[in-house]
Batch of 3 targets.
Target 1
Amino acid sequence: MPNLTLLLLTHNEEKNLQQYWTWLDKCPIITEIVAVDDLSTDNTLSILKSLASKNRKVIIRSRGLAGDFSTQRQFALNFAANDWILWLDADEKPSDEMIAYLNHFSPKHQKNVYSFRRLDSFLGQTLLHGETGWVYFTRLFHRRYGHFSGQVHEIWSSRTIPIKHEEILFHYPHRDLKSFIEKINFYSTIRARELFLQKTPVSLIEIIFYPLAKFLKNYLFLLGFLDSTPGIIHALSMSFHSFLVRSKLWHLSSTSSSS
């Protein structure tokens, strides 16, 4: 049974670390945490240091994000002592069932990658439908058989199809609607820049109809309406994210062509 290194990116995560990371002592298979901190100004660093124990070391590297999460994760891999890697965000918390799975983790092959079902909490309610209701994220892998890719929503890219597990990873991404809108604005800027660098074209039709299609998919086809009021607010917000990405992409393209 291998030991695990946990990869973590942080930026002013004091509240999340205090609230959601008491589970670590239940998971002795994690013998190392490698955290890359994006120049936090709160107590994130001191809390990270407090996660160290007799059987678990904590390595912290401070480094500006520069809008590229996958590069930051790949950078963190350079400091991992273990081959098997678990990666989480500060606003995520594994369920007791997922912790039990990790503690008994015994891979059949080094090339295998493992994904877990993630459920989002939004405005005090767990979303069971919509685009976040039935998604699986690869979070456990051998470091030699893949790499991180994607600037905004980074993923572990591997030739191996992930083995899906039903153990739940809880996600608490937004403390309130204000922070949600702020994140939408932040991530849409990074995503638009990524598409611009890939020379992705955008049209007025896409700016108008892609967000509409996004809303209909989340709210109707993926049954977001079953999540009551938080479901429609979330569906509308994700539609707004799509609108911002394409609007910002259009602005970048038009500015570039006129210069």
Target 2
Amino acid sequence: MNRYSTLRSATAALLVVAAMAACKKNEAPPPSDTAAAAPAAASVSAIELGKSLTADNKIATPTTSFGARDTIYASVSTENASPRAMLTAKWTFQDGQVVDSTSQVVAPPTAGGSTAVTEFHISKASAWPAGQYKVELFLDGASVGSKDFSIGS
């Protein structure tokens, strides 16, 4: 084999190796330990009903039975909600008739926590009709839970 043949063979081999290296897929780097975790999704963690509230908008004594002249409070605990998250309470009578529907921005979380407690209530100057009722809660338009309750005569 002469010197030029050897040189051509070596050059061809180098070209093949370079072409194979160029065709190799780029692999993603391993995940970094310093990468920020995605924030948790907002959710409703509790819905309670009662006749009165504590100073932090929680139900003083939870109940699902009310009198005809009671004000009905709903306390909604929300986790990881954005500052502009919207809660809606839709109150309905047993036949599906809407009694009230109210929306409000989620209350700010308690100091040092991620839980916010928002209060809704309904009242009536005259007596409530006796029967079965429901309050359904929506977070940014999506249903997140409901509570059934009754009003006696």
Target 3
Amino acid sequence: MKRVYDALIKQHLSQETEMLFLAGPRQVGKTTASEKISDYFDVFQYISWDNENHRELILQGPRKVAEAFFSVLSHEKPVLVFDEIHKHPEWKSFIKGFYDTYGKKIQIVVTGSARLNVYQKGGDSLMGRYFLYRMCPLSVAECATSKLPTQPVRQPSPIDDEDYWALYQHGGFPKPFLKRSNQYSLRWQRLRKQQLVKEDIRDVNLIHDINRLDILAETLRHESASAITYSRLAKHIRASVDTVKRWIEILEAFYYCYRIQPWSRNVPRSLIKEPKVFLWDWSLVTDIGARSENFVATHLLKAVYFWSDIGLGEFRLHYIRTLEKEEVDFLIVKNDEPWLLVEVKHQNNSPISQSLRDFQKQLGAPHAFQVVIDMPYVDQDCFSINEPVIVPAKTFLSQLI
């Protein structure tokens, strides 16, 4: 299937001279997107650190890599993809040296299934030599169209009903979404978690007590869409607060979960320290309300990442909650100003949240939506409305990325 990232990669390699860094969860589709580069460029090579022969070549240095793969003359710059190169203990020095020597002759793509600052951080800075794009799971908008946006929101596009509910049930990772089998999804989830916790993290020696890390990961799964307290988690898994914080950062770095922080500016008596936690694979969340909120959260985070990465503005995702327990599920901040408030409901069986009304008035955000998961698509631009309104998730999410 076509991904919006295919068009993004093609555009970057056609227009920019900086390296392209593509980061994202394991099995989200980075390798497939990289291989599609060969459809657009005459000379293309793929090198993986996980391939023993490629690894031996990389360890010989940039010149040996260039000589091995690019002896053929071409009318256009060849493209070289380094996959999982950040597992190299001195990957930053290697990539910097390769780019400084061959960057004018070769277009360079670097991909990784963990964030590209997880591994050893030695070496010279790569600042100014690359653009980072964060690849996220499939979404409603991406199922509807793979075209690149020119502004933060699109016109609404209908999504096939079967695709929508397959996305909600099986998650946004391509294989389980396309298979649409409960049995396959369960096996895939188990294998991915095993590879993530017991292979990827262990491989880089970031943590020794894998069993307790596994318990923490399982605890976070049950607390998806909830504000977490580090001291409570520490007591539960019998570790220090600092250890819990460090382990959650590791789980974030390897795209198991992510946190969003509360927004406190101009919100009296707001929470300041307690983040909410969500999973990249929302299909792991069994509670229907929590899954619905996680489903929307990951769509919003994908949009925030994408819009920021392609230069449409600086976007961040937050939530709002006060000590009096007034709250709104999500707030998107655009260029440091409140822009979009979102409250999530699974069914349309309640009036518009009073907190949604109150916080829009208080913060001056242009848009405030109560997004309903189980509601028919309506062919109307949500963003043409500036007062709090109930909108179908099928419509609202199709206008994002």
